[in-house]
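User: These chains co-purify. Model them together.
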Amino acid sequence: MLPDYDSLAPATWAEALAALAAQPDVVPIAGGTNVVVGMRAGELRGRTLMDINRLPELHGIRVSDGHVVIGGGTTVAELLASPAITEHAYPLHQAAAAFANPLVRNRATIGGNLVDASPAADTYPPLLVLDAEVELVSLHGVRWLPLDQFVLGVNQTERRPEELLRSVRWPLAPERSAGLHHKLALRKGTACSVMSAAVRVDTDQLGRCTAARIALGAVAPRPIRAHEAEQSLVGESLTEVTIRRAAQLAGQACRPIDDVRSSAAYRRRVAEVVVRRLLTAVDLELKEGAQA
Amino acid sequence: MAVYHAVGASAPRTDALGKVTGRTPFPGDLVMEGMLHIKILFAGRPHARIVRIDTSAAQAAPGVVAVLTARDVPVNEYGLIVPDQPVLCGPGSSKSGADVVRWEGDQVALVVADTEEQAAAGRDLISIEWEELPAVFWVNEATQPGAPQLHPGSPGNQLVHWLIRWGEMEAGWAASAVIVEGEYQTPFQEHAYLQPEAGLGYLDESGRVTVQVAGQWTHEDRKQICHALNLPEGQVRVVYPAIGGAFGGREDMSVQIVLALAAWRTGRPVKIVWSREESIIGHPKRHPMTIRTRWGADRDGRLTAVEATTWADAGAYASTTTKVLGNANLMVTGPYRVPNARVDTYGIYTNNPPGGAFRGFGGPQAAFAAESQMNKLAQALGLDPVELRMRNLLEDGDLMPVGTPLPPGVTIRQVTERCALEAGWKHGDDGWSRPDLAGPAPQRARGIGIGCAFKNVGFSFGYPEQSWAKIELIGGRQIERVVLYQAGADVGQGAHTVMMQMAAEAVGVPLERVRLVPSDTATSLNSGTTSASRLSFMSGNAIRGAAERALVAWQGEERPAVGEYLYRAPATTPYDPQTGACEPNFAYGYVAQAAEVEVDLETGQIRLIRVISTNDVGRALNPQQVEGQIEGSVVQAQGYVLLENLVVEGGRVRTPHLSTYLIPTVLDVPDEIRTVVLELADPRGPFGARGMAEMPFLPLAPAVTAAVHDAVGIWFDSFPLTPDRVWRRLQASEHCRPRP
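Assistant: Joint model of the two components:
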């Protein structure tokens, strides 16, 4: 059963922003895969839903000015089908492939996943390692925030009630960079993460790490970057020793909880294992790239 | 083997087109003009007395037509074996003790309103004064002196105790070269059928209180409704539309009685649809069991003695616990020659969800203990697990510990041998030896394991098993149409198609000429239940009998020619209270499975790579449907052993959604399920068929734990083998530390 609600269907971007400015408890709804589930559970976040699916400003995947830019209304299925995402954001492609199931992927949007800000949200770790930024727009103007600053806690972000998340962008990766994502869940489809991780390593011509990104999901109140682990790799070559040390630091960065899916101790331990395996695979990919 | 024209072929399902196009109505799809909607107020607490219930605000709420409580139920009790469960809990009812709720799923009040939303709003306005009672959630605590008592007739909360005393235990242990002890714990399991409980109640054109609902036994549903409403059978009608899965979980009453009650009290059509949460909270579960057991064998690997004590959590009400445990009591010694046995099986009331029927019906828990013991004995004796089984498996004429042999046609040996060969075991001069496996990926280990089992077909232990069918032959010179009346429920397994195939076969016409009038107490007598793997066997024999009589009438020039037949299965007998001696069952199916797994040594994740399931089904009446049942059993058992984790804390289900109670998805099924169907006819079965839809569930859990042991050297005596749990054991095991 759905509770009673009012609905708006703005025809233009300006109308949508005006509606939000006038009535801050309006809940924007795109795919509805979080909002409707929450409503059924009696967690109505506002009495009025605003359908934003038809606003062209929220759609499209393009590569320009050295960035990949995608509309906040891009569905996970569209991400999965996009050659640009596969080429320029492979960890995000992997996360999209592990996202829920085909039916949910057809509805769920990247903007919805980010704004909902579940600690286990699948698209956060890959976008964090890609150095993504989100574009927040209101009648008062436009601001860009790094994703790492955008997300605050469980279902909490920097988005103000009058703002819409219009797009997400990230710079194209430099040469000699590789990234991967892995989701550890209790089953292969329609599953919430026990934990997930994404890594990305940029290297110089000698194979030394110039920058590293390690992001983890479902191990803290919000998706996190493992900064110390990242720093430990900078200036180093990827070896069994440096990878193991970085993985340990990543494990130590976790602040997990016990829940019906697993214990906190298990999450911390597998975070280390998964990061180690991802870095090892990234190393292999970089070496193969160097030989090619 | 006999040659048949209609059975033995994979006839397309007669219900396929309607279901895949969405045209077939399931109970939740049914609508009637002017119908009202029901919402149920559940107890939401494990043990409490309702001191006072105030429904005045609910009754005054917009759209509310009626609020029904315990006072409105004429005979406020029901239960398949013991009527120990109030229809609605609350004060002022005809039944003493009905003012107490004993689990969170107890039903307290019905709100009937114009819309579902109004009914829900009304439900939330009911005010109750509760007196919380001390509750008990563990079997070992429930049996202690001073523990809260759930039912006055069951001191110590003991619902049932079955036993077997066979041979001389002292002599058995004395003859043992090896003794293996184990304690096994099996978890709850939720049926998680596709279609949550739903239905429609109304007064039909003859004024009968009619319920359209998804159940497993129309005539038993009617009996339960008649008892609670104190109505004669002629005034109650139960009809089953399409049913979205059952697995035993629809044997108990869920919405049947309340739909009838609300339709009868309001005189208007009423509808109810449970949410998934209500479904998971509101119906019984597979019994959790603790089985402590000791097995001895001589130097040659021949079993000398088996001792087993089983405690099952019966939950708050009896449901089918006594029967489930009768099975567990019988099967806990496995399909083996056991010369000396001492078996005790207890069912204990707690304030947890009731244990009830679920595919396998006590067999899976017992098989987990028995097969794990055999696998451990093999290790202790230095014998291959297949070799050990070959030295002990029952054959025709061998006595079971209940003092009688299995019915003729015992094929467990053939089934196990075939399974071992298919899985790659070698049989040489030195006996059986395990297959070599492909090398695992880094940080992983592979292993293979095997198990076998037997499963009764039909009701056991003295139950007067019978099934009714009627056949009408219509035509002039030749039979143009065959109309089959049979109430056996097609719960999604394809039973109706198979019944029609059997009717076509028995009459000697093509399948296209057969029409079925199914599952309606107004058109059929009692065909019995869809459970105990009995439907093909029992209905088939009834259909054959009816066809034979109809054909005689046809020869006698009757038009239409009608034949009715009540098939009575061979008699069985109950357990002797002192020794357990009995003739437990009239038919069985036999099964063996091998499972290959890969264990991730660092994350504890287990991948089920392949399963070989070898099943003697007697005669595959519809091979495609047989294969479907085998694959379905394997995947459901895979969920049981590896994934499904019903968290119950303080009597409350913490995982009442399919997002937290996880069952396997299509991506999780094993890379390979090889189904091997043997057709070693049961002389008592219709066209040689045995019942088969439960047995492939039984051996998988022990086969998987044996495979895990083969991979990492650790025995898991409880499950589900969730990664967290496996990882903890791997951590503690020197052998499996991740390599540096």
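Chain A has a mean pLDDT of 96.
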